[in-house]
Amino acid sequence: MTPDEEQVPVELARLWRLPVGESRLGRPAALDVEQVVRAGVELADRDGLPGATLPKIAKELGVSPMSLYRHVGSKDELLVLMRDFALGEPPGRETAPEEWRAGLRHWAVGQRRIHHRRPWLARLPVSGPPSGPHEIAWLEAALHALRGTGLDWAAKIGSMTLLSGYVRHASLLSQDLAQGRSGTGLDQAQTERNYGRAMAALVDAERFPETARLFSSGLFEAPPEGAYEDPATDHDFTFGLERVLDGIAVAVAGAAPGPRPRPRR
């Protein structure tokens, strides 16, 4: 390691694929961090997060479980490594400084699609701030989108945290609803239609007048065309996304130079 690299904790060095206590002499190691993490991600993609244990990774790679600890310090560290690897690079899109909203929308839609493709990602525990190269790339993309807003650094980080939290919540909710439908043989549109009809028959208009009007409105009978084809452009997701962006827009407007409105007394 270089003197600077010696100041980096071992876990971060592995996350950034820096050499950690490895001899530069002799034959190269038969196994490395990249192979271990890639195998873990492939197992999680195939079998879900419970399928990506260290013993199962060792079996997949044809090595002993103990040999993995030369490259991954613990199961918790493995999950951090897998998360960064699985995120990949953010979708590239150049926006002008004043187009912050389009930039953040593209950023959020990109995350939503990754979580749909890899549902286990949203179920990983959040153990700390962005630290890996891919996480930092996503951070850079969000900060780049916000560069012309006038927001201070804390407000920019707060905006990104709010937005990524919304994407994570929407992804988990979508998974839970899909799990609830599993085994019924019904798709989302059929499930919503059956739900609306059952509630319309059950809800008493005198006791729940507004809810009764909702279920008699026909909302659940005919979803918009293509409503469930892309979870990142689904009406429920995009409606919430735009409301989050509306909130960030208030902060951006407040950070803009110029006279501030006087508070009412």
Please summarize what this structure is:
This protein has ten helices and no strands.
Could you characterize the architecture of this molecule?
The structure is a single chain. The chain is mostly helical and 265 residues long. It has ten helices and no strands. It has helices at residues 10-15, 33-47, 54-61, 75-87, 100-117, 133-145, 153-181, 188-202, 209-215, 235-255.
Considering the protein shown, what is the CATH homologous superfamily of the largest domain? Tetracycline Repressor, domain 2
- Strand coverage percent: under 5%
Assembly classification: single chain
Q: Quick one: CATH class of the largest domain? A: Mainly Alpha
What is the percent of helical residues?
40-55%
- Are there runs of 5+ residues with pLDDT below 50, and where? none
User: How many structurally independent domains?
Assistant: 2
- Secondary structure class reads mainly alpha
- Tell me, briefly, the overall form: flat
The termini sit apart by 62 Å
Number of helices: 10
List keywords for this structure.
265 residues; mainly alpha; Arc Repressor Mutant, subunit A; Tetracycline Repressor, domain 2; 2 domains; 10 helices; 55% helix; flat
Give the arrangement of secondary structure elements.
Layout lengths: L9 H6 L17 H15 L6 H8 L13 H13 L12 H18 L15 H13 L7 H29 L6 H15 L6 H7 L19 H21 L10
Helix pairs in contact: 2-3, 2-4, 5-6, 5-7, 5-10, 7-10
